Amino acid sequence: MHQNRGVSNDRSHSPDQAGRRSATRQTTARTALLLLAAAALYQGLWAQLAPRSFYDDFPGGMSWIAREGTYNEHLVRDIGGLVNGLAVVAVVAAWTLGRSVLVATAVGWLVYSVPHLGFHVTHPLGDTSMQAINVVVLTSQIALPLLGLLAITKRPSPAPTTSRPHVHPSATRAL
Q: Hey, which of 51, 125, 140, 144 would disulfide with 36, CB 3.0 to 4.6 Å?
């Protein structure tokens, strides 16, 4: 009779497949984090380098911010700097895929993006199609940092398939 000596005929848990899954998770995490950083830098650099233009024209000439109140250069530049800071942290997380920085990136982005989305849902734009696009973009700022956490999630290992002979506890006492 053939005994199973720890070799599984189930190839779904092979080291090659586990390595490919891990590489796919890492690539997905890096891509998500770099997309997040690119979007943040678009906003942040514009706000810091040309605050009046950002206030008057964001996004892309639609003047969403100017409708909200009086221009404040200090506030616009500070917000730009904060968003740039989030972008830098996302780039570092994408580069290193370190557990602590991935978690910090996700938490930092969620602290920023959940209330931001909440504001825009409760204060919708007049143009329904633009509101829909805005909600999708802002929702991505919640989803992308969570996708970044894929780099640290692991699928549970399968149960061992080796069969071991049963040894009665009294057999070990004699030693």
A: 144
Residue 59, preceding peptide bond in cis (omega within 30° of 0): yes
Greater pLDDT, 128 or 62 = 128
The region of weakest confidence among 90-94, 103-107, 158-162 is 158-162
Q: What is the pTM of this model?
A: 0.72
CA distance 87 to 141: 11
Taking a C-beta distance cutoff of 8 angstroms, is the pair 103, 149 a contact?
A: yes
Look-up: residue for tokens 């404040």? 72
CB 147 within 8 A of CB 28: yes
Amino acid letter, 26: Q
Q: DSSP code of 11?
A: G
CB 73 within 8 A of CB 119: no
Nearest CA-CA partner of 89 in 142, 36, 12, 136: 36
Rg (CA), the chain: 25
**Residue 104 is inside which H or E element, if any?**
helix 99-122
C-alpha closest to that of 51 among 86, 88, 80, 82 = 80
Cα–Cα distance for residue pair 90/11, rounded to 1 Å: 36
